[in-house]
Amino acid sequence: MLRSRHWTEDWRNGATGMSLWTAAEAKAATGGSVQGDWAVNGVSIDTRTIEAGDLFVALKDVRDGHEFVAMALEKGAGAALVSRIPEGVAQDAPLLIVDDVLKALEALGAAARARTQAKVIGITGSVGKTSTKEMLLAMLSAQGRTHASIASYNNHWGVPLTLARMPADTEYAIIEMGMNHPGEILPLTMLARPHAALITTVAAAHLEAFDNITGIALEKASIFDSLERGAPAVYNADVETSPILAAKTLDKRLHGIAFGEHGFDWKLKELSIQGDTTVVQAEFDDKPVLFKLATPGRHFAMNGLGALAIIQAIGADLAQAIVVLGRWTPYKGRGQREVIQLDPIEANVRLSLIDDSYNANPTSVAASLEVLAGAKTIDGVGRIGKGRRIAFLGDMKELGDDAVALHAGLAHLEATKTLDVIHCVGPLMRALYDLLPAHQRGDWTETAAEMCDGLSHKLDAGDVVLAKGSLSMKLGLVVDAIRKMGHPVTDM
Fold first, then answer.
1. pTM here?
2. Is 127 annotated as belonging to a binding site?
3. Which domains does the chain have, with CATH numbers?
C-alpha cells in the first residue's frame, strides 16, 4: 500500500530532536501529578506494539491496562499514564498519575488539537471511512506533514489517542470517527474540531441501535456540528438520506458540497473498470476531472471522488493529489488484492484473492460482490480448466430485526447471480445459502475455522476469490489459509 512520504500516524518526533510530550506539558494538559522529568516521542495503548520512548496509556477495556505497565516500562516506554501505581512498578517510576485515564487521554488529545495549526479533516460514514482516510493520507502526505488515525481507531478512545499522537507542527490531520450507538459522534467531532468534514455514505449498519436508517443519517450528520460557519461539509448525494445531510449543512450555515452521480458540486459522469484499474470521469464546477485508481470498484471511485472534494475544499493541490490517488491501493482486509502463486515454478498456476474480511454490511457486501463479478478469471491452468468467481461470505453483524431478511436479500443482487460458487459462514448467512441455486451453492459452516477444512479442494488455479464478512466472523482465517496454499505476490 502507498504510504506517507513525509509522516504517517506513527511518525516519531525524535527524528527532529523534538519530543511529542514532556512531563510538564502532559501535567499541564491533564492536571495530573508527575513522577520524574521525562519526555516521550509517541503514545501507545498496546505493549505488543509499543516502541521505546512511548507514553503507555493504561486504559481499562477487556483487561485493565495497569496490569501491563511494568511490561511497558521494561520494553522501554518513556513513561506511563495511570490512575495508581500498579503492583510490580517502582515507586519512583516515570509516571503521569491522574484520576481517570480515559479522561486524561481526552485532555491530552484536546491539548494536542489546541497547539497545532494543522488543517483538520473529519471523516465518518457507514462504509468507506478508512479507505477514504487512507486516500487522503496518501494525497496530503505528498503536500505536507500529515497525521492520521491508524487502522480503525475511530471511537471514544481511538480519536483522543490519534489526537494525542499528533505532532505540534502537523500541517494536515485526518481524523476518522465511527459510531455504534446514538450520540457517539458529537463528542468526537467536538474534540477534534475539524476545519472540514466528509460523510462517505449512509447505509444499513448498526441497525440494532437505531430505529431506522434515518437515525443513522442524523447521527452521521452530527459530524458537521463542530464546524465553523462557512466550513466545507462534504456529503454523498446518492444516498436516500442525502436530504437529511443537506439540511444539516443549511441549518449550520456551512458550505455544503455534494458528490456522486447526483452531486451538484462534484458529479460522477462515467466510470469504467479496466482490469485492476478504475477510470473515473467526473465534473467539478462544470469542468472535467479525470482520475484513476489502481484497484477496481465503484465504491472506491466514490470514496476517491469525496476525497478529492475535500482536497479542493481545503485548498490543497488538486492536480498533484490526482496523480498520487492513481497509485493508491486498499488497506489490508478492505479490498486488498493479491495473487497467490500455487506452483513455485509455473507462474501462471495462480489464483487471485480479494481480502475484504475486515467489515461487512449490506452496502459494502454488494459493492464487493460487484467487484468480484467483474473480475477476470484465467482458463486452462487448473485441474478444473476454467477459472471461477468464488465468494466466502460471513455474517453481517448489528443489523437488528431485519438481519435475516438483509442476508437473504443478497441472493437477489445481479452480481450474486453471476458468481460461480458461494460459500457461507455463520447462522445469518444460512438465509442466503438456502436461497442459492444448486449450481452456486458451495459449503455452509458455523465458523470460519470450519470453512478452512479442506480449503484447497474448494479452490483452483485461475479462480478469483473474495472473502467478506464482519470482523467477528474471522474471515481472515480463510484469507490466511488461502495465502498458505502458495506464495502471495502483490497483484500489480
1. 0.82
2. yes
3. 13-100 (3.40.1390.10), 107-325 (3.40.1190.10), 336-490 (3.90.190.20)
